[in-house]
């Protein structure tokens, strides 16, 4: 049996859940094992209904008022009891701020392996080989888990295409009674970044700058290019950390997820956290002097050269086009 | 604090394809760990107490610990034993938490959110389970509660959302990049570091059997390290900067039709 731990927010399944289902459906084919989705929460019938329409075998629902808010203690406790009873082969969790908050604890509490940040897998004889990224996504590491199942794995966001999830015929829904423990950690408050002028989610063209710009003052190059091309300005995490620009400009897993028709990455190496926030853009341009930078792997057009020469040249041509 | 190859180094995969050639590399503290240490030092400045740096590994770990002492940590624990080599996150977390136990526990363990080599961000959280403490990951703000027994911690979630949680001490926090501006060691700090306590413990000192640590204690086996194939069909536009810029505008207008 392959377990998918559904991740949801505001009564909606998060995109990572579909990605996990794709991962599970592929594993199911290769290892001939059924798929069970597990959803924890309070008042989650609708989510169970959505899950059972996918091509899976079963949905386990743990519905309890104390599960209304995620806490690592309640998730670890409830999941551990379900896993001990059901004895799945693999347990798939999202490599997200929630998944990575409880999966390591869960794996240690059961003394079973966890391979985190998986991007692909293969079957060697009957063994499961999981591949994950290491050294800031510059290299991949193939790992073989030791010991008996269950094996825990978290899947990197974006590694499995959510739109390839297969629909099926009415999976069985099993409601189980659970008694979550009183959590040690308590949620006090949620705060959001104010969406000001840098709301990039609907911007058709985005020009983003990264650490390659070297200093705050040089960001004017990005603003000038954005103006010439009629786009909005974005930034990578290091730029925001260095306080060159406010947090609201940040594109990536901890900032905004964008999907413009054109994304120009200037001086951005392309850490995985950045790539997951922009890789669905229709056309990606990378300008970077390091030909090995991971950003070129997702780019459609690349210029390997000094951005301080390329960007002004590009801005000049675009301005000329506008005026003449 | 985890020693990792200096980010400027060129990484070459070893003959067995199980790791990188690390013999001649310079090691530094993993970037996120510097933010964790800085946060610890700031908490000490505000609330008093003691900051202990701990690291596992060979001479490279000793070097990282010395730089931590120079930044202002009060003392260091070096987990040194050939048996520790090849540890995965599980074995590392088991060993580190045992050492914290042996040292008499702590009020707070701060770890970097993820390392620059394995980068999975799970060792700190695993330590919390071994220690049976509460924890919080991806922390961007720490405040001690008025009662002195709890902490108010801000976690960074996806999509620019933060959540504030209350965590009872003792706890493990994994510290996000950019939470603060780590200080540099002063010359005075470097001199003072030489006089600070520096413990060295082996697996036997921790009461851990050889098969519980290092590669033997790991939950998975590394089959192969490889540079992923480039799947993308990126078209690199050559020529002078002016020519490349002109070609790009042409491609964006005529081929991609996005401007």
What string gives the helices and strands of chain A in order?
A: EEEHEHEHEHEEEEEEEHEHEHEHEH
Mean pLDDT of chain B: 94
Number of strands of chain B: 12
Secondary structure tally: strands of chain A: 17
Q: Provide the CATH topology of the largest domain in chain A.
A: Rossmann fold
Q: Could you please describe the fold and organization of this structure?
A:
The complex is a heterodimer of chains A (324) and B (259). With 324 residues, chain A is α/β, with parallel strands linked by helices. Chain A folds into two domains: 175 residues, Rossmann fold, CATH 3.40.50.620; 119 residues, TPP-binding domain (Rossmann fold), CATH 3.40.50. Chain A contains nine helices and 17 strands. In chain A, helix 3 packs across helix 4 and helix 5 runs parallel beside helix 9. The model of chain A has no long low-confidence stretch (mean pLDDT 93). Chain B has 259 residues and is of the alpha/beta class. Chain B folds into two domains: 215 residues, 3-Layer(aba) Sandwich (Rossmann fold); 28 residues, no CATH class. In chain B, 29% of the residues lie in helices and 25% in strands. Chain B has six helices and twelve strands. A five-stranded mixed β-sheet of chain B has the order 5-9-6-7-8, sandwiched between helices. The longest helix of chain B has 17 residues. The model of chain B has no long low-confidence stretch (mean pLDDT 94). Chains A and B meet through helix 4, strand 7, strand 8, strand 9 and strand 12 of A and helix 3, helix 4, strand 6, strand 7 and strand 8 of B.
């Amino acid at each position: 049996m392959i377990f998918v731990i559904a991740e949801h927010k505001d009564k909606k399944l998060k995109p990572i859940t579909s990605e996990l289902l794709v991962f599970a459906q592929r594993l199911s084919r290769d290892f001939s094992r059924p798929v069970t989705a597990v959803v924890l929460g309070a008042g989650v019938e609708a989510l169970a209904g959505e899950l059972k329409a996918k091509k899976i075998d079963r949905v386990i629902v743990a519905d309890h008022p104390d599960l209304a808010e995620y806490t690592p203690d309640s998730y670890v406790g409830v999941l551990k009891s379900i896993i001990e009873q059901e004895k799945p082969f693999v347990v798939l969790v999202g490599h997200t701020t929630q998944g990575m908050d409880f999966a390591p604890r869960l794996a240690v509490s059961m003394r079973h392996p966890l391979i985190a940040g998986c991007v692909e897998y293969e079957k060697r004889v009957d063994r499961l080989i999981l591949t994950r990224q290491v050294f800031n996504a510059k290299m991949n590491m193939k790992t073989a888990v030791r010991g008996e199942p269950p094996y825990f794995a978290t899947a990197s966001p974006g590694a499995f295409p959510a739109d390839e999830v297969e629909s099926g015929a009415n999976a069985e829904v099993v409601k189980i009674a659970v008694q979550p423990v009183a959590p040690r950690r308590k949620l006090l408050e949620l705060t959001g970044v104010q969406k000001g002028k840098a709301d990039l989610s609907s911007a058709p063209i985005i020009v983003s700058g990264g650490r390659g710009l070297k200093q705050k003052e040089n960001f004017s190059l990005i603003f000038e290019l954005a103006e010439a091309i009629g786009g909005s300005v974005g930034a990578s995490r290091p730029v925001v950390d260095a306080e060159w620009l406010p947090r609201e400009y940040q594109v990536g897993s901890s900032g905004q997820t964008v999907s413009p028709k054109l994304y120009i990455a200037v001086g951005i190496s392309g850490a995985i956290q950045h790539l997951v926030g922009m890789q669905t853009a229709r056309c990606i341009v990378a300008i970077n002097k390091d030909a090995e930078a991971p950003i070129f792997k997702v780019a459609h057009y690349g210029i390997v050269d000094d951005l301080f020469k390329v960007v002004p040249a590009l801005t000049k041509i675009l301005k000329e086009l506008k005026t003449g | 604090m985890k020693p990792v190859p200096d980010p400027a180094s060129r990484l070459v995969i070893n003959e067995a394809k199980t790791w990188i050639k690390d013999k001649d590399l310079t090691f530094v503290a993993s970037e996120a760990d510097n933010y964790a240490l800085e946060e610890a030092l700031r908490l000490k400045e505000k609330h008093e107490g003691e900051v202990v740096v701990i690291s596992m590994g060979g001479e490279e770990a000793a070097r990282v610990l010395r730089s931590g002492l120079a930044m202002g940590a009060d003392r260091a624990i070096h987990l040194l034993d050939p048996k520790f080599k090849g540890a995965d996150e599980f074995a590392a977390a088991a060993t580190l938490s045992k050492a914290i136990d042996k040292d008499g526990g702590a009020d707070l363990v701060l770890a970097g959110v993820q390392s620059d080599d394995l980068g999975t961000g799970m060792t700190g959280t695993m330590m919390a389970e071994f220690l049976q403490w509460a924890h919080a990951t991806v922390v961007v703000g720490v405040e001690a509660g008025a009662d002195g027994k709890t902490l108010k911690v801000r976690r960074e979630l996806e999509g620019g959302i933060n959540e504030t949680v209350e965590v009872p001490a003792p706890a493990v926090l994994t510290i996000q990049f950019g939470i603060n501006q780590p200080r540099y060691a002063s010359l005075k700090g470097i001199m003072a570091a030489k006089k600070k306590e520096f413990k060295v413990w082996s697996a036997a000192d921790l009461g851990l059997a050889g098969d519980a640590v290092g590669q033997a204690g790991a939950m998975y086996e590394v089959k192969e390290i490889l540079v992923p194939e480039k799947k993308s069909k990126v078209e690199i536009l050559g020529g002078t900067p002016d020519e490349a810029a002109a070609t790009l505008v042409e491609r964006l207008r005529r081929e991609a039709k996005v401007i």
